[in-house]
Design goal:
Chain lengths: 231, 99
């Protein structure tokens, strides 16, 4: 009889505890672990593109080095800085949720969304510049790589990589903004506190992962071969 | 659950990441030959480690999660090593330097 009461008391402890978990700690560990398993599939997803990129870069080093001067590293560096700030605000949001600081949590979530949106706006300007410069390798031929005509073919390959890799990254950013909106709505209802902040933590993992992808895209697409101004 | 990390730590990590971004940007303007790619990717890998270890709290995660995180990046290393091993050993393919 006493045992039943003890179990009841434990279950009544937190309304967020699902019945198939022993306690809140186990629930939290399972959630973060599950999120990491998902992120491993994301490593495979982006890893395939990074691998293919590496192969082509080693096959056409001169061409890739010359075409990387088509990119504007100032855009890339600015976007890296913006994304790193958003990672800081995300980390602070998780901390605030853990400590039950409701106002600060909402503030940091909004900051994260603003920085994430700023990244996409800068990216949009950059894409627009490529479009105006006629560097988008579309079928039908609205492109012109006559600055280095000997590498025109490889330049199309490079820009395909560029648009696919940054494009998939941008889609992940959009998904991240959607997740942040959901978390913000939950935070407004006062869902999170010291005993339950798992959704904030897990969304943070996703946000930081997208940041990491950009940390590698920045040197690979903008910086390597930057000094080799072959054009 | 994780212990609460002080704000100071997060700000320091952010500061380091930002400084490294500027460092990698300016080093890329200097011609170091083959070293440029090593420096750029080395800095990127270090930045990634900081984000994973501190921002993503792997520092205080349980050993199972740590193992999986390591396994993910180890898999990535296998992918790159075996793919490049294959392409580098095909002598008929036009291979140059990384730059």
């Amino acid at each position: 009889m006493a045992d039943t009461h003890a179990v009841d008391a434990e279950h009544a402890h937190s309304p967020q505890l699902r019945h198939h978990f022993d306690d809140m700690h186990q629930q939290f560990d399972s959630a973060t672990f599950g999120m990491w398993v998902f992120l491993l599939t994301e490593i495979m997803f982006f890893g395939g593109m990074f691998g293919a990129y590496t192969v082509y870069r080693t096959m056409y080093p001169e061409a890739f080095a010359s075409t990387s001067t088509y990119m504007n590293p100032a855009f890339g560096a600015a976007n890296t800085a913006v994304l790193i700030v958003s990672s800081l605000s995300m980390a602070l949001a998780v901390r605030a949720a853990h400590l039950g600081q409701q106002k600060f949590l909402q503030l940091m979530l909004i900051a994260t969304m603003i920085f994430g949106a700023a990244f996409l706006v800068i990216k949009g300007f950059e894409y627009h510049e490529h479009w105006v410069d006629m560097k988008v390798p579309l079928i039908g031929g609205h492109w012109d790589y006559s600055e280095a005509p000997q590498f025109a073919h490889q330049a199309q390959i490079l820009f395909c990589f560029y648009f696919f890799m940054t494009g998939f990254h941008a889609i992940h950013m959009l998904v991240g903004l959607g997740i942040m909106t959901t978390i913000f709505v939950m935070a407004r209802k006062g869902t999170f506190g010291p005993s339950y902040y798992t959704p904030v933590e897990v969304s943070g993992l996703y946000w930081h992962f997208v940041d990491i992808v950009w940390i590698f895209l920045f040197p690979l697409l903008y910086l390597i071969g930057h000094t080799k101004k072959l054009i | 659950m994780h212990p609460v990390t002080p704000v100071r730590t997060y700000v320091l990590i952010w500061l380091t990441l930002t400084i490294l971004t500027f460092v990698t940007y300016y080093v890329a303007q200097i011609d170091l030959g083959q070293l440029n790619v090593v420096v750029a990717l080395g800095i990127a890998a270090f930045k990634m480690s900081l984000v994973i270890w501190f921002f993503m709290h792997v520092r205080t995660d349980n050993p199972l999660t740590k193992l999986f995180v390591f396994a993910g990046f180890f898999w990535m290393a296998i992918l790159l090593a075996l793919t490049l091993g294959d392409y580098f050993s095909r002598t008929w393919m036009p291979l140059g330097k990384f730059w």
